[in-house]
Amino acid sequence: MPFEFRSLMFGIVILLAVFFILADISEVEEENRNHGGTRTFYLPSYLSKSNRTVVVEPDPTQRAIVGGSNPPPPSCSTEATSVEWTFNRTLSNLIRKNILKFLDAERDISILKGTLKPGDVIHYIFDRQSTTNISDNLYRLLPQVSPMKNQHHKRCAIVGNSGILLNSSCGREIDSHDFVIRCNLAPVEEFAADVGRRTSLVTMNPSVVQRAFQDLSSELWRERFLQRLRGLSGSVLWIPAFMAKGGEERVEWAVRLILQHTINVRTAFPSLRLLHAVRGYWLTNKVLIKRPTTGLLMYTLATRFCEEIHLYGFWPFARDSQGNLVKYHYYDTLTYEYTSRASPHTMPLEFRTLRSLHSQGALRLHVGACTPRE
Predict the structure, then answer these.
(1) Which of 130, 180, 352, 374 could form a disulfide with 245 if both were Cys (CB 3.0 to 4.6 A apart)?
(2) What is the CATH number of the domain that holds 246?
(3) What backbone phi and psi angles, to 5 degrees, belong to 3?
(4) Proportion of the chain above pLDDT 70, given as a percent
(5) What angle do CA 26, 27, 31 make, to 5 degrees?
């Protein structure tokens, strides 16, 4: 093939690529204008080459404490807002398309049986010098196929664990979604009016076994753990078993109990590339996180199989917009320093990023009380 012809074909391909990129940008900007939005969020890397910037509002709790006269952060339930939230399908689809350049949640949500075998050595993601072995029990719980294979849901709820949920009356609204994601095996029954009961997928960091169930050190704590698992009724239990050294015994204890008691859950163990892929997506889009929180991780994954995503219980501040104290978790007395340099997470930055996406209609962030249903 002559060099000149190859050059011509290459030039045509480049022009077509530029055309489709500009069409994507134009379509999103048009829909953003229809939403009345003025804030811009970095999406694919080609947007970051322009002079656009991420515009985020200051810490809403500081506005409430210092100024007092500014309006509270947008509520997506019963509190009045000046602009009604409208789903921006074009922007949501564009985010999904660009996340797929970094990871595919259907594939990366779990290691599958056959990709590993009992005895295989795994290097921990955050401690590459340390290793663990795939136990026979853990191997038995690896899924044959992705637990999210071919799944698509119209409306999904991701429920964080902030105390902002207390007295919110959001339980029925959360349960009305087609798919409900919860974090770190948080209790629901005694808080159902505020957080709901339905669970489609729930995460369980190994540290939860120690913190919430006292390392299963007695029959009482083992039974409490089993009772929580039984309440999942066939849901996906997502266990990040290979993140950091120190949790291998707790994972094995949990896995053994699931097998011994034939607990009806679909276990999933995230791929070894997942966390770095998620972090890479956000860093590429100028969101300078250290390590994604479980909430941001779940939102990133949910874009793959959820059309419209609603977030509840995301509030990384010690006080609400009226200056009232807010518990770190709605269900315990654990405290947390949100802005500590020692923390592996950058929660306030994540929240402001999600709030910017809310303002553009890509997701809906619920931070107020919900309307009681008749």
Answers:
(1) 130
(2) 3.90.1480.20
(3) -60, -40
(4) 76
(5) 115
The residue whose two tokens read 């948080």 is 186
Task: Please report which confidence band the pLDDT of residue 15 belongs to, taking 50, 70 and 90 as the band edges.
Answer: low
For residue 5, being part of any structural domain is answered with yes
- pLDDT above 90: percentage of residues in the chain: 67
The three-state secondary structure class of 280 is: helix
* 326 CB neighbour count, 10 Å cutoff: 18
Shared domain for 14 and 101, answered yes or no, is no
Helix (H, G, I), strand (E, B) or coil at 284: helix
345 is catalytic: yes
d(CA 282, CA 297): 10
Does residue 53 sit within a domain? no
Q: What is the CA radius of gyration of the chain?
A: 22
Q: Please state the domain count of the chain.
A: 2
Buried b (16+ CB within 10 A) or exposed e, 58-72: ebbbebbeeeeeeeb
Q: Which of 177, 345, 358, 366 is catalytic?
A: 345
- Identity of residue 166: L
Does the predicted model carry a pTM greater than 0.70?
A: yes
Torsion, CA 224, CA 254, CA 149, CA 42, rounded to 10: 90
Domain limits at 10?
A: 1-30
Cβ pair 180, 159 in contact under 8 A? yes
**35 domain-assigned:** no
Return the structure tokens found at 109.
């949500």
- Tell me how far the alpha carbon of residue 107 is from its chain's centroid: 16
Q: 194 with 172: CB under 8 angstroms?
A: no
108 CB burial (10 A radius; 0-12, 13-18, 19+):
buried
Give the pLDDT confidence of 113-145 residue by residue, as tens digits.
999 999 999 999 888 888 999 999 999 999 999
